[in-house]
Design goal:
Oligomer: single chain
Largest sheet: none
Shape: elongated
Radius of gyration: 19 Å
Helix content: 55-70%
Order of helices and strands: HHHHHHHHHHHH
CATH class of the largest domain: Mainly Alpha
CATH superfamily of the largest domain: PhyR, sigma-like (SL) domain
Strand content: under 5%
Number of strands: 0
């Protein structure tokens, strides 16, 4: 749908009404990726603010569809609200970053993907403690993959390369899209078989963690741990390939 270059108040109201459905879609997609302290109502309220912000900031002259622009703003608003509500964000981020650094250091030293028990030993904790920490920081993996690859807040995120439902991508960006997709595919191939299964079932088949647990015949908590570890590894590998 095309909109006039200068949106007036009536145009903004209409564009918001036309895209209210995006808030429900993104909340439904993200609800299992945020911690329990953030409910659906919190997410919807934040998402609505993101949609309103998108309508206020949208500039058709930049040759980007409003739907695409609004998705980034809605998703970003939900993640920002989650950060505000998360009283332990600094502590959890420290744990998340420590796991990432440990995995990266071990991979360089060993020349292969480290096993979970090796990461735990390097961190000086038991395997059970390490896996518990993975569960605690699981939502931070989602945050890091939702962050955009540039500083504008309007570009592609790592997560967009796992699941991309956008249409009418502009020709000028097709080469960049293909290059990024190739890097994501190469990074995914380096994950363990179980991690690849979790990523595939979660992002491509859109199963819940409970459903994935039933398919793989493990506990839901274990799926959360594998998902968290896979996202940490994927972020590290993508950053290395992109930078």
């Amino acid at each position: 749908m095309l909109y006039p270059p200068n949106l007036h108040s009536d145009d903004k109201s209409q564009i918001i009404r036309d895209h209210l459905y995006l808030v429900d879609i993104l909340v439904g997609r993200m609800v299992t990726q945020v911690p329990s302290f953030m409910g659906r109502d919190d997410m919807k309220s934040a998402g609505m603010l993101g949609l309103l912000d998108a309508a206020n900031r949208y500039d058709p002259a930049k040759n980007i569809q409003f739907k695409t622009f609004a998705e980034y703003r809605i998703r970003g608003a939900i993640l920002d609200e989650m950060r505000k509500l998360d009283w332990f964000s600094r502590s959890l981020r420290d744990k998340h970053n420590r796991i990432g650094r440990t995995i990266a250091d071990l991979e360089k030293r060993l020349g292969r993907e480290p096993e979970e028990h090796e990461v735990a030993r390097e961190m000086g904790v038991s395997l059970e403690e390490y896996q518990t920490t993975l569960g605690e920081v699981s939502h931070l993996g989602c945050i890091s993959l939702n962050e955009t690859l540039d500083q504008s807040g309007e570009g592609r995120s790592f997560l967009d390369s796992l699941v991309d439902e956008r249409e009418n991508i502009f020709p000028g960006s097709r080469i960049e899209e293909a290059q990024l997709a190739a890097k994501v595919a190469a990074s995914l191939a380096l994950l363990s078989k179980k991690e690849q299964q979790v990523i595939a079932l979660y992002y491509y088949e859109e199963l819940t963690q409970k459903e994935i647990a039933q398919v793989l015949e493990v506990s839901e908590g274990r799926i959360s741990q594998l998902h968290s570890q896979a996202l940490i590894k994927l972020r590290l590998k993508l950053e290395a390939r992109l930078h």
